[in-house]
Amino acid sequence: LSMVAGQILGGVLVAADIAGTGWRSVFLVNVPVVLVGLFLAARAVPETRSQHPEPVDGPGTVLLAVSLLTLLAPLTEGRAAGWPLWTWLSLAAFPFAAGAFYAVERRADRQGRTPLVPPSLFELTSLRRGLVMIVPFSIGFSGFMFVIAVALQQGAGRGPVAAGLALAPMAVVFFFVSLAGPRLVARYGTRVVTAGAAIQAVGVALMALAAWRSWPDLGLVELLPGAAIAGAGQALQLPVVFRIVLSEVPAARAGVGSGVMITTQQSSLALGVATLGTLFLSLIPTLGMQDALVTTLLVQLAGVALTGLLSLRLPRTIG
């Protein structure tokens, strides 16, 4: 809900063009959110302190940051910059940075310390398989959000507010379907996730069909069936997968377990904009906006199929 709401509020801010800032004003949406968050945290979050606080994993933190930077920076900026030498050097450095990060974390884990990402945590089947599924799901979600916003505004000529509102049905349906998620999981187990992937695939296919048939008259009405069905499918996947990832994590490691999960999700979201966004923008000069959008949606559809296949490896029940 918040991701789609951010898309709509971002459209409002862009349309408002505060002090001539244009698209840059979208960053202002964080200001009231942070202020409200600080107020609610001070009022509602109880004070807790560890009896045996662990030191910060400095080497692991630095190496994780370097790993993510060497991967995401060139993928995000490479196309716009014309793929200069530094982008290739950065990508070449990524496996070495990631390998060094893993080695440092494994050593700290074996020595009984608390690393940033304990490799022993991945021995948990539910966590390992759930994280693997989060990657393609998040890549597809963020890539879609970026691509559809660009296509609706620059291709279909919609304003930023109208482009944001076109995704509102997805958020509304996601909200109501997710409420039924716990009951469905209790009855059918994790096969609900597989069903969710199949439903999302139908929704993405309908949006690709709408883009192919209705372009450039593409907006809320044309995207409504596909967006609503895709939202229902997503609601049967993401909340359940989050629950699966954390289901076997010991209470003492709940913090690091949730941290690993959210870091995986956020990194994958950034990777989705970098990869699907780059694909979409690279196809426009040769195929045109319509065919580039349809092609990118079909690539996302393949990603949805992958999440469906990966869901078959999830534990049948959640502990």
Give the end-to-end Cα distance, rounded to a whole number of Å.
27 Å
Q: Please tell me what the overall shape is.
A: globular
- Rg value: 21 Å
Question: Strand percentage, roughly?
Answer: under 5%
CATH class of the largest domain: Mainly Alpha
Tell me the structural class: mainly alpha
Total helical segments: 12
List the domain count as a whole number.
Answer: 3
Q: How many strands in all?
A: 0
Can you give a write-up of this model?
The structure is a single chain. The protein is mainly α and 319 residues long. It folds into three domains: 1-49, no CATH class; 56-121; 124-319, Up-down Bundle (Growth Hormone, Chain: A). The protein is 76% helix and 0% strand.
